[in-house]
Amino acid sequence: MSNIVAIVGRPNVGKSTLFNRLLERREAIVDSTAGVTRDRHYGKSDWNGVEFTVIDTGGYDVNNDDIFQEEISKQVQLAIDEATSVVFMLNVEEGLTETDQEIYEMLRRANKPVYIVINKVDSSKEELAATEFYQLGIDKYYTLSSATGSGTGELLDDVVKDFPTTEYNDPFEGLPKITIVGRPNVGKSTLTNALLDNERNIVTNIAGTTRDSVQSLYKKFGHEFVLVDTAGMRKKNKVSEDLEFYSVMRSVRAIENSDVVIIMVDATLGWEAQDMSIFGIAQRNRKGIVIVINKWDLVEDKKTNTMRDFEAAIRHKIGQFSDVPILFTSALTKQRILKAVDTAMEVYENRKQKIKTSKLNEVMLPIFENTPPPAIKGKYVKIKYCVQLPTPSPQFVFFCNLPQYVKEPYKRFTENQLRKEFGFSGVPIEVYFRQK
Ligand code: GDP
Ligand code: GDP
Question: In this structure, which residue's CA is closest to atom 1 in ligand 2?
C-alpha cells in the first residue's frame, strides 16, 4: 500500500506550487468538484526511490469567514484521517495567522507525522522572518522555496524516512486479489456483504498507512480468492464531495494491491468522469478489469435493447481498451452477482495466462505474413519472432528488422489479434516491437 502525503494550508501559501514540483512530469489525476475554486490533484512522486502519493488539497472559494474556516478544517481533518503524513504549509510573506493556529491545533492532536513547512523563503531575509513561526510552540520547521525548489530535499528526506515500515506477512499470499471500486453509494458494501453472506470468513487488517483495509477470504462454488474491501469506510463523513475525492484515492491504493478490479457503476447514473478516472488508473496499473452496472433492478421499462445500448455507450466511452466484460447486476436482489464473481475469476486467469513461445510464433507469424505492416519509403518490416515476457500482466515483444516503422495502428492490430487468438478479455496488454 502506498504512502500518502497531503499538503494542507490556507489558500495562496504555495501548496499547488509544491505539488507540481513533486510531481515533475508525472501525470496528476484531477478531481473537479463543484464548490472548490481549484481542482484537487493527486499523483505519484518518489524520493530516493521511495514512491508515494501526494495530494494537493486545493482550495475553496468562500468569502464568508466562518464557512471558510469550516471548509479548511474539513480538509485538514480528511488529510489527518486519510494520509500517512501531513505537510502543513505556511507563508512567510503573510506571517502567522489565526487560521494557521487553528489548523495547527488540529494537526497537533493527530497521531500522524506532521511537517511544518514555511514557504516562500526565497532568501536569508525570509529565513530570519520565519522564526516568527516558533510562536506555534514547535521545535522544528522546514523552510522552503517551492518556487525554486530549495529546501525540498531536506523535507522529503525526513518525510520518506518516517514512512511506516509495513513489514506485513500476507496470510493470503498467492491467492487472487479482487477489489470492488466505485463511487460512493453504488452498492459496493451491499455486494461485498451479499458475497460474504454478511459473515467474513477470515478478516485481516493490513497494517496500512491510513485506515486499515480489510481482506476477506471468499471460498465458495469452486472459487477461492481474497476480496479487498474498500467499502463501508468513512460512511459517517457528511462532506460528500470530499468523501468522493478520498474514495478515489482509496480506490487507487486498493487497485495497486489487487489483480482484478471490479468497477461498479450505478445504473441510474451511468458512466461518469469519476468512473473513467478509476478505469484509467486500473488500466495504467495493468490490472484485470470487470465493469459491473449495479442497481439494474431500478432501471424501469427494460426493453430487449436496453442492456445492449447501455453496454455500447460504455464501450464507446472507455475508448481503445474496450475488450472488457460488462455485466448488469443487482446487489440488492443478488441478481447475477455470482456471474460477476465467475467473470472476475476468468479475467484473473486471462491475465495470468502465459502463451508458449512456440504456440505464439505458430499463430502470430502467419498473421504478420498475411497482413504485414505497411511499407514506409519502400522499406518492408519483417517480423521474425515473438515472445511473451514473464511479467504479472501480459506483455509481448515482437522482434523485427525495422521497429521504428511499426506505427500505432499496427500495434493495435497486433493487440487485437492477440486478443482474438488467445482471449485476454478484461486484461490490458502491452505490445513492443524491438530490433532483432
Ligand atoms: P496554494 O493556493 O496554496 O496552492 O498556492 P499556489 O501554489 O497557487 O501559490 C500561490 C502564489 O504563491 C503563486 O503566485 C505562486 O507563484 C506563489 N509562490 C508559491 N511558492 C512560492 C515561493 O516559494 N516563493 C515565492 N516568492 N512565491 C511563491
Ligand atoms: P457503497 O457506498 O458503494 O458501499 O454502497 P452501499 O452498498 O452502501 O449501497 C448504497 C445504497 O444503495 C444502499 O441503500 C443500498 O441498499 C442500495 N443498493 C445497493 N445495491 C443496490 C441494488 O442493486 N439495487 C438497489 N435498488 N439498491 C441498491
Answer: 185
